[in-house]
Specification:
Distance between the termini: 58 Å
Largest sheet: 7 strands, mixed
Number of domains: 2
Strand order of the largest sheet: 4-3-2-5-6-9-7
Number of helices: 11
Number of strands: 9
Radius of gyration: 20 Å
Oligomer: single chain
Low-confidence stretches: 4-9
Helix content: 25-40%
Structural class: alpha/beta
CATH topology of the largest domain: Rossmann fold
CATH class of the largest domain: Alpha Beta
Length: about 260
Amino acid sequence: MIRAKKSLGQNFLVDRNILEKIVNVVQIKHKTILEVGPGTGNLTSFILKKKPKEIFVVEKDENLANHLKETFKDQLIIINDDILKIDESSLFKSKVTVFGNLPYNISTEILSKWITNSSEDLWFNNLILMFQKEVADRIIAKFDTSNYGRLSIISNWKLNVKKICDIKPECFSPRPKIDSSLLFFSPKKNFFKIKNSKNLEKVTRIFFSHRRKMIKKPFNQLFNGNQRVLDELKINLNLRPQNLDFDTYYKLTEAYEKLGS
């Protein structure tokens, strides 16, 4: 019998209606699929019914990886490894559709890696991912709201994000203590060009390190009170970090990169 490991944040999705809903978010017939954290293979079975071209699954737990091999035989390409250590862009010859009931303890780390480690041309077509609801609310947050922050800004840089549904704890085994949310990500045709994504991470980290305070201090830390940047971006230093919209943070990053070049 397979038991969920708390240390790996395992909660297996068992509700058939939700599983059906997930595989119908986007057309996957004849497509290459990557499933992250397939667990016991409940969603995998539903994906297979849609007749994809091929399915790669990444499962860190060796027992579960062996279970998947016994259950699905040669229907899957099983990678028994940590998703954070895999270079997806070199793994796939063409773009893939990604499904994931991500381990909640590293879900934001995985998403940030996929966005910031990619070149201009992303390696995936779409992401259909499950998060702790509280995290999902931060990803989809609009500026001037309490949930808006670094995660919102980085997620919405290259991707359009749409909430599909919330999922109750009773849809999982074992039951988590919190609600979950399913999000759909699709690449933007045009996004703000930043030379190095690490700079976007740095700018947002410094601005949101004191999210309730005015932005004068973080601005001066990054730009040493540069009046030209203030004038160009029309920034009021009496505002707080959540009052600046997505584009302002991308433009701030661009200005920061120009200062350093």
